[in-house]
Amino acid sequence: MPALSQRHLLGIEPLLPGDIRTIVETAKSMKSISKRAIKKVPALRGKTIVNLFLEPSTRTRSSFEIAAKRLSADTLTLSGTGTSLSKGETLMDTARNLEAMAPDAIVIRHSASGAPHMLARILEPPVINAGDGSHEHPTQALLDLMTVEERKGPVKGFKVAIVGDIAHSRVARSNIFTLTKMGALVWLCGPATMIPREVEQLGARVTNSMDEALEGADVVMMLRIQLERGSGSLFPSVPEYAATYGLNRARLKRAKRDVVVLHPGPINRGIEIASDVADGEFSVILDQVENGVAVRMALLYLLITRPEGRGGTA
Amino acid sequence: MPALSQRHLLGIEPLLPGDIRTIVETAKSMKSISKRAIKKVPALRGKTIVNLFLEPSTRTRSSFEIAAKRLSADTLTLSGTGTSLSKGETLMDTARNLEAMAPDAIVIRHSASGAPHMLARILEPPVINAGDGSHEHPTQALLDLMTVEERKGPVKGFKVAIVGDIAHSRVARSNIFTLTKMGALVWLCGPATMIPREVEQLGARVTNSMDEALEGADVVMMLRIQLERGSGSLFPSVPEYAATYGLNRARLKRAKRDVVVLHPGPINRGIEIASDVADGEFSVILDQVENGVAVRMALLYLLITRPEGRGGTA
Amino acid sequence: MPALSQRHLLGIEPLLPGDIRTIVETAKSMKSISKRAIKKVPALRGKTIVNLFLEPSTRTRSSFEIAAKRLSADTLTLSGTGTSLSKGETLMDTARNLEAMAPDAIVIRHSASGAPHMLARILEPPVINAGDGSHEHPTQALLDLMTVEERKGPVKGFKVAIVGDIAHSRVARSNIFTLTKMGALVWLCGPATMIPREVEQLGARVTNSMDEALEGADVVMMLRIQLERGSGSLFPSVPEYAATYGLNRARLKRAKRDVVVLHPGPINRGIEIASDVADGEFSVILDQVENGVAVRMALLYLLITRPEGRGGTA
To answer: N or C end of chain A, less CB within 10 A?
Structure first.
């Protein structure tokens, strides 16, 4: 497997298609570890991984912690409350201090777009973006790709519909980059208030019609309506949003007969996705979670053991 | 040692006396591990244990974490704050997501009675109830039994007084089941507002008189007055409660000369128990904590390594 | 290396100069472990270390956790929220309960001066003070000493200026004890409201003049202005404090040409220390953090493996 072209994983945008291939193929072999009776290999024994989670997270944080432990790495997890950031320390100073404790990788989730890039510019160890503001969430897009390929093979030529609040979704952005790099055709769908201007420059098509987005789709990615972040102000009412952009079985019939449905979770049942779709035969939502551990194991392994001088840019 | 009849530990109620015996005997050998210079065995190496603590807890959570680590398991601990539950995800979805990360056991504490049972109905890995609402707290009752037996041998025929807010106590319920299954005679004592209706159907006797409860008792279990949960509304005043139902040295003289006094902690000194009793020669309160680690090691070991097809019901 | 004279590390005050030497020399060999590809030795395998952090902390808590893991110990970290202390349990009862789980060391940070001493009086395992009120922060002073010696050799005869809120600083107190025991001359500097009465009895000199403190100094230790703890009431305004007692390049010229500048962090850039000094060639702030892990590894190792009967006092 060739080494990654990058020292850090800051987003999908700077990755080469070959990097994406390397990560997914490595993740496939990592996945088998979690199916063994003894779910642990010594690959990263004696390595220290810092998880700096400055936004709330269950799934991603748990996934990174389990990934690290299955590779025998030690983890140190810091969350927003109880860190020196609450004493007014800058993120850069927190990061420099953590670096002085000799971690082998730093995983960061932050509400500010670009926070991982700031860290990567000054820190020696690899930085992994676990979600930064409305910018990117690259591990999510990688696990999404792995999950789609598992069911349906390479995505080249696929029609992929991404539905919801595209404008505020780092998941959507990372998926647009991943899917277009791998040759899929991405359709973005949502009310006008949720579609960013000039998004077509990223190579995606835009529609406000759910029917048009779903028509003949190989893959449907539903986004979470983030009511806790005020998404509610972007549409008239929750029932109206659900009626217009929620995914239900009837509507899904427009898609290909072997369509797969993804959702990054946590799901709002009955809002962006009907329960019978979320739990139904087209849903790969729990495969996404399972593959998330594998993708994060792959990334931690590839970045920490990456030979120096591979000449990547941050 | 025979395998347990159950795949999960949801409560004491569904256990057979033989299950209880198996757990306590296994806990006795586990206890010796914590007395060694190297307090660690490889029994659960490469296993992942998720601790889902949705109610505050020091003692029980710490006890489960230490138990897992002494068996070389990896742990992932999630607490109420900072989980997706705060984003409106249902408990079932949180559980399904955690399951997708391939844990080998899930330990859950939850404010809702029956929450562990809901999980057990849908999840593959064993579920351990670490306290659910006012329903059961089975590991507490098992460690209580182990502690009593350590000092006084089998409880068959013993008079055991349980004093305090029986109606809201999952500790009391689990102990009633355990003690009656093992042949002890349970007396429940407290003000009328704290005794549930029809509790005698569980095989216990009821009295409002502390003297009657203590008379000739082999074992006294004092319950915590949970002022932080509004127990205060169930009696006129704290001093009055302490005077009527608090355990002090004078009152304890009615019990057998080799009586043992238990309390699940944290104790309210001077309310339900006088300091000189809590710290005195009849108290086994710290033995309870020590045995808690051993009982939880035993349960994790027995449930995770249980041969399949043993035919238990959830 | 001789064993320590103490069973616990409660402060620098009770240590012998030989103890300090043993700790720093052990820390030097521990430091090399963090520079290896596999940053882990089995020295404390099967040991359990409880970190009881009842005040917020990133740096110190992370440092202790990483130190423990690099020695292969298991850790249990408890913070203020979510412990039984919030249910009204006394610190002593929390400690006795933790002890019943057979930890091999207890690290405690507490807002009350003397809290670690209370624990040490009743607990069997070694207690390490990670900062108690305004009393002592011994591991900070030990890592400060190690850092100064690394650059400049033994501190005997050095002029060391400590600048800031001396009266409320446990860092200052522990450093005064350490430095005077090792033969340095300590100058304390700050506004009169920040200098405790009779501090000269500890062997230090006092001045309100920053210029006098810096004149010919070998070492400058800047203290953090703790605005989050109301330090603001001790001086007229932040800009005025920064102008009078902030360290900048111009002012630093009064010190020796090979002066080193320390700060316990987190730093307030532009208040007690100018950014170009914090990041400049005289600053050893990040070395302090790096050495912090080494000092804590040394202490955990020395205290946990200390031969019994060495006859120390608590």
So the answer is: N
- Residue A71 CB coordination number (10 Å): 23
Predicted confidence (pLDDT) per residue in A246-282, tens digit: 999 999 999 999 999 999 999 999 999 999 999 999 9
DSSP β-bridge partners for residue A220: A161, A261
* Inside any domain, residue C157: yes
Check A78 against C58: CB less than 8 A apart: yes
Shortest distance between the Cα of C46 and any Cα of chain B, in A, equals 4
Mean pLDDT of chain B: 93
Q: Which residue of B has its CA nearest to A38?
A: B46
What is the domain extent for residue A116? 17-136+291-304
In terms of domains, do A187 and A281 share one? yes
Mean pLDDT of B27-46: 97
Residue of B57 and B310 predicted with greater confidence: B57
Task: Please report all neighbours of C, defined by 3+ CB atom pairs within 8 A.
Answer: A, B
Q: Determine the 3-state secondary structure of A244 from DSSP.
A: helix
Q: Which residues of B touch A289 (CB under 8 A)?
A: 97, 100-101
> Are A142 and A251 in the same domain?
yes
Residue recorded with tokens 């960013």? A196
Partner residue facing C289 (CB), from A78, A88, A100:
A100
Tens of pLDDT, residue by residue over A68-126, are 999 999 999 998 755 566 667 889 999 999 999 999 999 999 999 999 999 999 999 99
- Per-residue confidence band for C149, with pLDDT thresholds at 50, 70 and 90: very high
Nearest to C130 by CA among C40, C225, C49: C49
What is the pLDDT averaged over residues A147-163?
Answer: 98
Residues B127 and B157 in one domain: no
Whether B314 shows a pLDDT value over 50: the answer reads no
How many whole angstroms separate alpha carbon B74 and alpha carbon B46? 7
Confidence of residue B56 (pLDDT cuts 50, 70, 90): confident
Q: How far is B275 from chain C (nearest CA, A)?
A: 11
Residues B295 and B280 in one domain: no
- Count how many domains chain C has: 2
C180 located within any domain = yes
CB < 8 Å to C88, chain B: 227-228, 266, 268
A48–C63: do the CB atoms touch at under 8 Å? Answer: no
For residue A153, what is the domain's CATH number? 3.40.50.1370
**Interface contact C45, partner B, CB < 8 A:** yes
Cβ atoms of residues A233 and A165 within 8 Å: no
CB spacing of C97 vs B286 below 8 angstroms: yes
Is there a domain that residue A313 lies in?
Answer: no
> Which one is predicted more confidently, B1 or A8?
A8
DSSP secondary structure letters along C225-255: --GGGTGGGGSS-HHHHHHHH-B-HHHHTTS
C150/A contact by beta carbon, under 8 A: no
- Tens-digit pLDDT profile for residues C35-64: 999 999 999 999 999 999 998 888 899 999
Interface contact A84-C39, CB threshold 8 A: no
Residues A181, A275: one domain? yes
Is C46–B40 a contact, with Cβ atoms under 8 angstroms apart? yes
**Are the C-beta atoms of residues A105 and C39 closer than 8 Å to each other?**
no
pLDDT in tens, B254-296: 999 999 999 999 999 999 999 999 999 999 999 999 999 999 9
B72 and B33, same domain (yes or no): yes
Write the residue in C66, C79, C265 that is nearest to A48 by C-beta: C66
In chain C, whose CA is at the least distance from the CA of B295?
A: C101
What's the CA gap between C57 and A22, in Å, rounded?
39
